[in-house]
């Protein structure tokens, strides 16, 4: 939820962020509030900073000079951290935006959040996860810019720092189940907020989408209903698919004969054939308990603490 007129300090690590992102950074941050400080840190005597120099004046970003006096020491990081703490103690802002792909700002982000600040991190996909999760929210710079809703790249591959889709889906299933058990409906906006609280770097743009609703619709796991201006989300009532999965499991167990099949092997087969399979959908917390609920089956120990199941 965007809080109107929240004031942010924008602090950019000019040593490892490309100047091509400055317009997108300012546009993205403006959706969260007012940018009251705009500073960038680097050695402006270096030829490497020449591209930044062209962009600073037109975007009213103040360059903070920091000479690289010592080889192997990042003086720019230290200056940015000191300035951030000075700004914090002025009480003139409610949030910070730290733009860097460097994990050196992880402790700074944590410290600012401990002081009640909202911390938005921005960096490239290579940004270490430690910095991502230290922020209130983290945004991949590669996702910014013009996004055509009709030409979404739905086949975009997840990078190593992106939360797995399955983890996101399971989190949403848990949110829905938790609320349904309390007799509450689940609003799409609330799901989005919960996901960001759980995973600060969650962003549907990481998966090639621009809308959370489309990301969830394409999973095939959820259904959405719009009443007035509110969208609610629930699990799909797909009894046919559930029965199909149970029939498949019965077939596999029967085919295993007297030797039976191990729980791990059976679980791998089911998940491999049905990507959306989740044992919680059947009211069980463990796969073994779910299988034991089947009729005409028995479980046994093959002698090395490996549980197996077979037809009686």
Task: Sum this structure up briefly.
The chain is of the alpha/beta class and 312 residues long.
Provide the helix percentage: 25-40%
Task: Report the strand count.
Answer: 11
Shape: elongated
Instruction: For the record, give the distance between the C-alpha atoms at the N and C termini, rounded to a whole number.
Output: 56 Å
Which stretches are low in confidence, meaning pLDDT under 50 for 5 or more residues running?
147-155
Q: What is the radius of gyration? A: 25 Å
Oligomer: single chain
Please give the order of strands in the largest beta sheet.
3-2-1-4-5-6
- Which class best fits the helix and strand makeup? alpha/beta
Strand residue content: 15-25%
Biggest β-sheet, characterized? 6 strands, parallel
Number of helical elements: 11
Reading the helices and strands in chain order gives: EHEHEHEHEHEHHHEEHEHHEE
Q: Summarize model confidence as the mean pLDDT.
A: 84
Keywords:
312 residues; alpha/beta; six-stranded parallel beta sheet; three-stranded antiparallel beta sheet; 19% strand; elongated
What does this structure look like?
The protein is α/β, with parallel strands linked by helices. It is built from 11 helices and 11 strands. It has helices at about 20-30, 50-55, 75-90, 105-115, 130-135, 165-180, 190-200, 210-215, 240-255, 265-275, 285-290, and strands at about 5-15, 35-40, 60-65, 95-100, 120-125, 135-140, 220-225, 230-235, 260, 295-300, 305-310. The longest helix has 17 residues, at about 165-180. The chain is elongated and about 80 Å long.
